[in-house]
Design a protein that fits this description.
Elements (H helix, E strand, L loop, with lengths): L23 E4 L4 E4 L2 E2 H4 L5 H9 L7 H9 L13 H10 L9 H17 L13 H10 L5 H13 L7 H11 L4 H13 L7 H11 L5 H10 L17 H15 L6 H19 L9 H12 L6 H23 L16
Antiparallel strand pairs: 1-2, 2-3
Helix pairs in contact: 2-15, 3-5, 4-5, 4-9, 5-6, 5-15, 6-7, 7-12, 7-14, 7-15, 8-9, 8-15, 9-15, 10-14, 11-13, 12-14, 13-14
Amino acid sequence: MAPISEAVVHEGLEGVLVTRTRLSGVDGEAGQLVIAGSRVEDLAGAVPFEAVCARLWERPSVDLGPARVQAFARLASVGGALEAAETMDALRAAVAHLPSTAGADEVPAAVAVFAAAWQRRRTGKSPVAPQPALPHAADTLRMVRGEPAPAALVRGLDTYLSTVVDHGLNASTFTARVIASTGSDLVSAVVGALGALKGPLHGGAPGPVLDMLDAVGSPERAEAWLSAELAAGRRIMGMGHRVYRVRDPRAAVLEAAVERLESAGIRTPRLVLARAVERAAADVLAQRHPDRPLKANVEFYTAVLLEAVGIPRALFTPVFAVGRVAGWCAHVEEQRRTGRLIRPDALYVGPVPG
């Protein structure tokens, strides 16, 4: 047992390289995200979500339509899972009912179907059956709304799903890889990842961003409101990231997606306010924490975009999972190929027997 003074502990595993991956790379200093060989700016909104899945899964093409139909048929077998009041509790429990043999088509399809069904049930409506011929984003939005969505809204959601599909070894992805490293099945890995995503430090910020915008109300109130929040010791939602030292590149992609909605005639009144709040937040945070670069992260414009395409706030984190689950599946497969159990060490600091 090494003396404490000689040991180096990387709390949170920050800066520790634990694997090699071809799936995504994050450069926090340069503000760059590469997904399967392409910058996120060149991928999201430029190719369909299914094409992004195909890249990650190393397939010629991906069609999730038949798997959505299969997942919908399983709604009767998930018991009371979708009756849970909290959306991520419902989604985690429902996915846990999938058979352990479910693969990388059925699990992502089920996440979309179960999330949409939970939303319909919470509003007293019946779940909507999938239309397998539709693209994944179009059918997901249709199952949530109960009717087909305009093409501009579908493109907005498709862009979002591709933007969040993978992001290095974030907490949920690492959780999935740890579970996969034990030889466990894909469903178990995804259920664990959903548990990690539920945590407010990982997937819970988009909704509170809208709460913040509601509280600010108008651009001219932004600076005073934000300063008061900081003075009270509260966080500014949607600002700062564990990895990025500059503005999150995904924030720019999603901001541009909102702009495209406006160009297509979809009103997005939040955009002007969101931009004003982002500018004011960057200024007040720089004054208060000059040594900490705190810029807009992905959640900031996630909130604006998902609201604009018609996703209810309670469904923000599950819809994040609808995109990210494709990355989880790819990481599980990649981890399986290594065949190496993930088992880091811990520094014991308790009493030592004499």
